[in-house]
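yo, Type II secretion system inner membrane protein GspF is done. seq:
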Amino acid sequence: MPIYSYRGMDRSGKEIKNTVNVESIAAAKQKIKSMGIMLIDIREQKAQGTSGGSSLLQLRGSVNVEDLAMMTRQLATLIKAKIQIVEALAALVDQVDNATLRLVLADLRQKVNEGASLAKALQDHPKVFNSVYVNMVEAGEASGTLEIVLLRLADFTEAQVKLKNKIKGAMTYPVIMAVFGFAMMNVIFIFVIPKMAKIFTSTKRELPFITKVCIWISEFLQNYWWLMIAAIIGGAFLLNKYLNTNKGRAQWHSLQLKLPVLGMLIKMINVSRFCSTLGTLMNSGVPILTALNIVKNLIPNVHMKDAVEKARISVSEGASITNPLIQSGYFPALVTHMIRLGERSGELEPMLKIISENYEDQVESKISGLTSILEPIMMICLGVAVGFIVFAVVIPMMDLNKIS
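structure:
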């Protein structure tokens, strides 16, 4: 069923922009008219295929993870209620608020109605549905447990959103403090210090070293601010270019893992993602080799990604998954020990779930601890900067009082 986007005016003269999901343009016009809207413009929204077989949506916008998780749970509920996939997708088109997701669902409904599997239809929208999503749906369709797989997908997606939001929330306060402190220091050095410097230099007395440094910084910011901006932009460009090389990326990721507090947090997040994704995929019926290949592509750190690739090669040769993980040194001993026990007992999926849940709790605890550490550090840094300026100004003022 096509989607028509329209523009019109209601009875009060307010402009209305929305979409309707009906059989034809005539039905769309009739439905819009029945809502008391005077139609100005109407057109059909379509998904155009690219040469690579994927879809390029004409409608601008993106699908956030929260909308995707909600849609997945609703689809699972409808399928569990014995509603056909085509009808379930048609129902979701009218329910979702995100315009881009609505267009994607309409395209999925059309492809499934034409005989394609849901997994095959999902592959045409890689920017919305990643490899984990597609492979789990494919395994669910093959095993006849699509509604169960979709519920697991919803849980998995919501857990990822929860972790992402906690990291963002933990970093919000330090970032605000840093931006505010940087802006405040620039205002002081550019507008306040020059006026004080004129008073100090008019006395023709030798100024303290700390005051000279303060005045020098102020003059530099006033006269060479463009040089500082150019240096920041140039440095960021060169750093980004270096980090895009294999050597630069490897060195940067190695440094990340060695950082005092952040290194452990990054390692724990990657371990949690590895265990939760692998466990979810295997529990949904995805073969372990395919699952390991998917998980490898979801881990951002190149060193831990290389360890997972070696584990995949080890499994393909009939060996254990744990040996390459142990040799890498990036996976804690408790994690590899529990994975080994899971392999030997044939209960690898439940063991991976236990590990991921345990590490999610540890990550939350670490993030809270990191926030409690960053806040006093930011306050101390601001205090030191303000103290530097205060001493640079107060010492000459005391000399002026002595002269008076």
